[in-house]
Write a structure and sequence with these properties.
The protein has 288 residues and is α+β, with helices and mostly antiparallel strands. The protein is globular and about 55 Å long. The protein has 11 helices and 9 strands.
């Protein structure tokens, strides 16, 4: 069973993040096809994914293409009932579906004033009243869900509901938006989630900055986990002879704690430099 998923720039495409999390966070294999936003790449690629109009777009194993992340979530849940995309408990599932639906359709002010950008974090973005109202609604929804269901995530265990709020959590982190302690703890959970850490690590290195997302605000350090101090180095000498991800011969190398580790291309190396602990296959070599 083979799925093909179209995504945009990882650092900026919030809907692409949702689409990818529906696979990676629930252990469903997928072939990725990436196209850069604000170029001809995405519309040209989507010609093969009709009638989808933007990323994410998914081609199902039988060849049918669909768009819209909520439709993708429902289709995957139907085809992979044991993956845990929706809670099995009826009440928790109802809560999760309500949350995902409201997120899919709402929070326009927050999205407009604070577009997703995983490459920076700002000290303040002067959120207007409309954004503050969206934040208040988020806190209301998140508190309601936890009171109704309990558990670590919104509907107990990690589900589609959390996937849909992941880009909102990143906006709170990027723009240092004012939320209470409970909401901030939920944001911190997202920043520490293994799949999100892998996505952000790739987003830091998979293309040039997009000017549309530039904001002239004072910056601060990213509030998530501080990565290990790896750096890219020249040469091919490394402890490992094969890339930990592809098994192909080493062509690019990073250095960490005075040790050298090799990869099959610059992207494999650079995504690991961005956050070594996000990559279990690398950490298995590093800790051996």
């Amino acid at each position: 069973m083979t799925y093909d998923l179209v995504i945009g720039d990882r650092a900026y495409s919030s809907w692409s993040l949702r689409g990818w999390l529906l696979f990676d966070a629930f252990g469903i294999p997928v072939n990725l096809h990436q196209a850069r936003l604000y170029t001809d790449e995405l519309p040209n690629m989507l010609k093969d994914f009709f009638p989808a109009r933007t990323a994410p777009a998914l081609r199902l194993p039988e060849g049918l293409a669909i768009g819209e992340s909520l439709a993708i979530a429902e289709e995957l849940a139907s085809r992979h009932p044991d993956a845990g995309l929706w809670p099995t408990d009826p009440k928790a599932r109802a809560v999760a579906r309500m949350l995902a639906s409201e997120m899919h359709a709402g929070f326009v002010a927050l999205r407009s004033h604070c577009p997703m950008n995983l490459r920076v974090s700002y000290q303040d973005c002067a959120p207007p009243p409309e954004v503050l109202a969206d934040l208040a609604r988020l806190e209301t929804l998140w508190a309601w869900a936890r009171a109704e269901v309990g558990g670590t995530w919104l509907a107990g265990s990690y589900s589609v509901a959390d996937v849909f709020f992941a880009p909102v959590a990143t906006r709170i982190a990027t723009y240092n938006l004012p939320v209470g302690p409970a909401a901030q703890a939920y944001v911190d959970q997202h920043l520490a989630h293994p799949s999100f850490r892998r996505w952000r690590a790739m987003g830091l290195v998979d293309g040039a900055d997009q000017p549309f997302y530039w904001r002239d605000y004072a910056r601060r350090d990213w509030p998530g986990s501080r990565p290990l101090p790896a750096r890219a180095v020249e040469g091919t000498e490394a402890e490992n002879a094969a890339c930990p991800y592809s098994g192909k011969p080493v062509t690019h190398v990073l250095e960490l704690d005075g040790r050298r580790f090799g990869f099959c291309n610059a992207f494999c190396r650079d995504k690991t430099v961005a956050d070594p602990e996000a990559w279990p296959a690398f950490m298995a070599i590093y800790q051996s």
